[in-house]
Amino acid sequence: MAHIYIYSPSGAVRDKAAFRRGIQRLKVLGHEVEVDPAALASVQRFAGDDAERVAAIARAAASGADVSLISRGGYGLTRILPDIDFAAVAQAAKAGMRWVGFSDFTALQLGALAKTGATTWSGPALIADIGAPDEPDDITLDCLDDVIHGHAEGTGWVMGKKQAEQLHQDLQRLGLRPEGGESVRVAEHATLWGGNLAVVAALLGTPYFPQVEGGVLYLEDVGEPVYRIERLLTQLQLAGVLTRQKAVVLGGFTEMATTAHDKGFSMKTVVARLAQQLPVPVIPALPFGHVPTKVCLPTGACVSLSVHGREVMMLWDDHDHDHDHDHHGH
Amino acid sequence: MAHIYIYSPSGAVRDKAAFRRGIQRLKVLGHEVEVDPAALASVQRFAGDDAERVAAIARAAASGADVSLISRGGYGLTRILPDIDFAAVAQAAKAGMRWVGFSDFTALQLGALAKTGATTWSGPALIADIGAPDEPDDITLDCLDDVIHGHAEGTGWVMGKKQAEQLHQDLQRLGLRPEGGESVRVAEHATLWGGNLAVVAALLGTPYFPQVEGGVLYLEDVGEPVYRIERLLTQLQLAGVLTRQKAVVLGGFTEMATTAHDKGFSMKTVVARLAQQLPVPVIPALPFGHVPTKVCLPTGACVSLSVHGREVMMLWDDHDHDHDHDHHGH
Q: Is ipTM over 0.90?
């Protein structure tokens, strides 16, 4: 059982019932839950003013908890990046704290990676994933549990049949062929990084954008018109970021708005065009994003990535690989 | 009377009545209007596929027209930036062609500035500004006319009383005091650049983002939730772009969406915070953007900028300054 610290670095918590429900569920799971004094603060759209949220991050870092979990995302981290004590974030991570969250939290994760090389976890948020009216997703809970107990050693997922066929065509075109068995090794000892596409792109050109070469970049987004998604991907492409990776992995792109004007322009055509243009594979169907089922991803850690038929397997390097991976086949 | 070339580098033209009306109005004004063969092309949401739009830009450059005017913006330029022949764009500009447009057109303008130093004009688009059902705005037409005939030598505008009071407080705090009369000189021989904020930010980190030091950066946007506007401004700020300018000039930020969750977070608070944080003045009320009344702005040209009471005056350096400026006081 773990000590979990709940804090609010981004948007103000409006759904207090879900907040309480989430805490209650974590307690029922046997965890000791500590709530930051400003977790329910509210100034404009933010969970407290900038200084308050910076202080909340510092308190989370100093809490000695096993896990610090954001209450929710929203918007609020990019504007306080210059004030965050990333050394303290990294020190806490080194001492064993797992920083967990997603969405706007991407800014804290990539800032920490850029400034200190610290590993943080992309994973659930309290309100959206633990406290929602419906029972939390089993896989999401299992993955979080693995992170909490330090058992997380990788993740795997299954692509759709057509997705897999397209990917294998692309892999072949790119000269990535199966070794030994039939597994195609796409990346080894590669830095895993990424997060919410809009937030990743919003850091480009700033000191909080990690300079990762030969990495595995994962991306997700929610509620954007498709043309914006393409514009953001194009920005990362024109900046040379995508080309410098070993693979681009796409999670959920949900609530994407298309209009009559799009006339067939869609996430599908955007992804197909991207895959065609890039000299690196674009791997679909990562269970991560603004979706109920989300795995936990160690942002900043070294990973290996391989594809076998319709299965994708991502393993963290920094773990005892003698263990059985089967139960992580989310 | 001028030779005006109409082409479509971005979104497909859907409102063909407005397209025809715009052309008719330009003809009534006495201009010779040449329409690009692909001006009404349509592939997905675009005015023809990527190669077609790249070719349309090349045809505009080769047309020998006095003015090349976009039919409309939308989305489509960032994804073809690597294929645009910017040398041809610059050569045409040098030979006297005025490239005119706004919104998505910002990508072509900043790409041209970054790659060649060419001056292009932020100004109206055919459909939104000339062909709309309502009669075109007089000032917009006058400014375009000045550009067409090479008479444009500057622009001026009047701030609101409170805006002016705040600006003068900021100018004083920044040590910018009136000389001689009561006019505060904010910038001299400074590169004027900018455009649509989302597009400006979408070029950050790419080879199409101009590296302008000590410039005058103007920005406008439409139809974005306010938090996104702030995130984009924050990106430019964290990248050091805003700090490196002599002034940031704000045009129209229209159809900005706020929600109940914003609780007082608004363009007003965003601009106030920005002005407070920046070591350079933030000058409001530029008549430019997705608004009926828009002046024409020579992106890439050298300008001087001064403030006198509620009036802001921006003059292009490269012009005979003996002329009377009064009739440009839009």
A: yes
